[in-house]
Amino acid sequence: MARAPKPLIPTVPNGPASTPSYRESLWMVPVMFLATLIAYYRLAYPLLNDNDVPWHIAIGRLLVDTHHLPEHDIWAYGNDNHPWYILSWVWNLMLGIADRLFGELGVFIFSLSVAAGLVAATTARMLKLGIALPAVMLTAIMSALCMLDYVTARPQLAGYALAFSFYALMHKSRTDTGYRSLRWLPPLMALWPNTHGSFMVGFVIMGTYAVEAWFTKRFDWLKHIVIIGCLCAICLLINPYGPKVAIAAMVSFTSPATRYTSEWLPFNFGTSTGLSLWLIMFIFASNLRGARIFAADKILAMGTLIATMFSIRNGAFFILMSAPYLATCLDEVTRDLRKPQPESPLAKFMAKQSLKTVWAASAAILLILCLTAKALPHDDKIESEDFSANDAIQYALAHYPEHHFFSDYNLGGQIVYRTAGKLSYFMDSRASTAYDPEAVEEAMGFLKLTDGWQDRIKKRGLNGLIMAKGTNFGEAYEKGLYHDHWKLVFAGKRANVYIARP
Q1: CA dist., res. 280 & res. 106, Å (int)
Q2: Cα–Cα distance, 400 to 466 (Å, whole number)
Q3: N or C: which end of the chain has fewer CB within 10 A?
Q4: pTM for the model
Q5: Nearest-angstrom CA–CA distance, 389 and 468
Q6: In what order do the strands lie in the sheet containing 424-425?
Q7: What is the rounded CA–CA span in Å between residue 94 and residue 248?
Q8: What are the helix and strand counts (H, E) for the chain?
Q9: 8 A C-beta contact, residue 174 and residue 8
Q10: pLDDT tens track for 412-438
C-alpha cells in the first residue's frame, strides 16, 4: 500500500484557521491591543528619555516645515558637508505630523500604539496557527512585557512592523492559491528603506522560507519566492538615495560609534530584564524537534537568537520572530497536562460579540483614555526631570550663543530638539549617516579622553563643552583635572557647561 503524502501544514489541536474556534477567539486581538497600550502608557520610558528620539522629532518638524530632504546636516558644526542619509524620513515625517497636530503627547501615544499593534498582530498570528488559547495568552502577555525596553518613538518600531509583515505574508504564501500574498512584499520593500535601515532583514526572512521550500521540494513555491525577491531588490532602489541606501545602512553598522553604544554591544544576561526573561522562557520551552513546527519558524527563531547574542539591538526581532514558535512549543509541552475546562462566562460573552463591535468598543475606550491623558498632567510621560539637560542647553544658548560646543554624544539630540540649530554643536548620535567617519572617531576620542584630545578640539575650533556629569571629563574635572584649560560656568541637573579659558 502506498504511503499517504506528508502534509505541508502541521496538524494543530484547535484546527485550521477556518474553524469556529479561530473566529471566536479573535476578540483577543483588540483586547490585547488595548491592554498592552494601557500597560505601555504606564510603564514605558518617557518620550524624550531615549537619546535618539529628540532628533527624530526635530527631523520630522524640519520635513513638515520645508517639504524636502536636506542634502547636508544643517544643525551640527562637525559635519564638513558630509552627505546626510535620512534613512527613516517617512517615520520622522509621521512623528512631525503627530507633533504638529497633537503635540509631544500625541507622538508618545502614536509610538505606543505601533508597539501595541505589534503585540496584537503577534496574537492574531498565533491564533491563526491554531495554537491552544492558554499558550497564546501566555506568549502574548510575555511578549508585551519583554518588548518594553524597545518601546520608544524610534524608527526601529517601523522596522519591526515591516519585518513581522514579511514573516506573516511568507507564512501565508504556503497555502495561497497562486502565492498571491507574495505580491505585497515588493510594495512593502519599497517603503522599508525609506522608513528604517533594517530592510536587509526582509531578504533574510525570504531566504529562510526559500530554504524551507528547497528542503520540502516545493520548487514552484521556491520559484515564486526567488522572483519576488528579485522584484524586492529592484523596489529597494525606490528611495531618495538610490543604490547608495545600502551603503548608508552599512555605514550605520560599521560606524566607530557602535563600539561605544550599549545597544550595539553583545547581549549580556541581565542588561535587559525583558529580553533576559524571554531568553529563559525560550531555553526551557524550545523544542527544535517539534513535529508541528515549520522549518522556517525554527530557523528564524534560532537565527534571531544568534543575532541578539551579537547585538542587543536585535532583541525585538528575536521576540517577535520567535513568539509563534515558542507558543507552539508551549502548546506541545502542555498538551497532555491540560484538562478540558468549561468555557468561562466572559469567554462565552466575548465569543458572541462581532469583531467589529469589539474593535469599536476598544476604539471608544482608547479615545476616552487619550482625552483623559491630555487633560491630566502628563509631563512625566514626555521627559524625566533628572534626565533633561535643557537647563544647561538654555544657559549655553543665552550666554554663549557664538561659541562652538562639543557635547556629550547622548545630548546632541536634545540640543537639536531644544534649539533647532541656534546653538552650534559638534555632533550627535546620528553618527556616520550624517558625519564623516574621521569626525566620529575624533568625537569618540574626545569622550574617552585619549591622548591629544584637547589639541584636536582646538583644531576643530571648539571652545565650549556641554557634558553629562557621569562622563569621563565630568569626573576628571571634579578631581581637579583640566581646570587650567576649562572653566565650569553652569552646573545643571544632568549636564554642566564648560567654557575654554583664554
Answers
A1: 35
A2: 12
A3: N
A4: 0.88
A5: 8
A6: 424-425, 404-407, 464-468, 495-500, 486-491
A7: 22
A8: 21, 5
A9: yes
A10: 888 989 988 788 888 777 766 777 777
